[in-house]
Amino acid sequence: MSALIRSFSRSLLVGITAATLCSPAFALDTVKFMAPGSVGGGYDQTARVLGKALIEANAAKSVTFENKGGAGGTLGLAQFANSTKGDPNALLVVGAIMVAGIEQNKPQISLKDVTPIARLFTEYNVIAVRKDSPYKTLDDLIKDFKAKSTSVTFGGGSKGSIDHIGIAELAGKLDVPVNKVNYIATGGGGEIVAQALGGQIKVITGGYAELGQYIKNGQFRVLAIGAPERVPGIDAPTLKESGYDVVIGNWRGVYGAAGLTPEQRKEVTDAVVAASRSKVWQDNIKTNAWTPSVLTGDDFGKFVEEEHVRLRAMLVKVGLL
């Protein structure tokens, strides 16, 4: 009898060991994303695609999402920093817009109060109009903008965002005073699209991922893109090749909670990097015309510090700070 029991025990142990080896080794449990902008906006899209990618890469068991927009993303940042300390399963989507928001609003909580994990990609802004717009080309728009600046309504993200800075910089190249730029700030996402389609905004600017579906189905026509060179999949000239030395782009990445141990930070970083190699992530890189630019850890933190200097100088230059 004892031999039979020993045999059964060995078989059970082998079965358990095999099952353990076959199970995915999740680095993270339920990842709680904070998207500091409206549903459908750039922060939100990044969070949801990364969430799918984490699951596909077996780097997380499940994901949840929370949206809190306002003040260039700094309201969401504050809530995240205060509610997630020491939690390795919390991720905050960040970007250049948030850095600009911090420089403008000078909030008590900044990105120094959370943990840099990884920059993921850069997304360049398109300048687009409704299909029935009289502006058929960028030259049509520029001619009208120079002649009667305030009559041309531009719409984009929050005041002082990359969208706003980009249009202000373009105005500067055209010798149009910043106070003559009629820019309508929105929470991005569905809000800006609704206003543009409704006619309250004549020209819309934002990342291709936010506007791509409307461009593909013909509701918007792209006049130009603010990339250094043409972007595959987007049939539009760059501002540079049209004669205007302006680049309008927004990088995005993720930060973790404050107070992570070095081991926790490495686990979170490894999980995010693994997700960036997944099929769902790579498919979205192509679909959304994102330019991959992965940078992790302290190198990412240093990059963000440099972005504070760069964006503050730009805000001053275009008269927004």
Helix content: 40-55%
Q: What is the approximate shape?
A: globular
The Cα radius of gyration reads: 23 Å
* Mean pLDDT figure: 90
- Count up the helices: 11
Task: Specify the CATH class of the largest domain.
Answer: Alpha Beta
What is the structural class?
alpha/beta
Which CATH architecture of the largest domain is right? 3-Layer(aba) Sandwich
Overview of the structural elements:
Belongs to the UPF0065 (bug) family. It holds the Pfam family TctC. Residues 1-27 form the signal peptide. This is C4-dicarboxylate ABC transporter substrate-binding protein. The protein has helices spanning 2-22, 42-56, 74-83, 96-105, 138-147, 162-173, 190-198, 208-216, 262-276, 279-287, 297-317, and strands at residues 28-35, 60-67, 90-95, 115-130, 153-156, 182-185, 203-207, 220-225, 249-256, 291-296. By secondary structure, the protein is of the alpha/beta class. It folds into 2 domains: 28-123 and 250-317, 3-Layer(aba) Sandwich (D-Maltodextrin-Binding Protein, domain 2); 124-225, 3-Layer(aba) Sandwich (D-Maltodextrin-Binding Protein, domain 2). Strands 1, 2, 3, 4, 5, 6, 7, 8, 9 and 10 form a 10-stranded mixed beta sheet that branches. Strand 1 (28-35), helix 2 (42-56) and strand 2 (60-67) form a beta-alpha-beta unit. It is globular, with a radius of gyration of 23 Å. 45% of the residues are buried. The model is unreliable at 1-24 (pLDDT under 50).
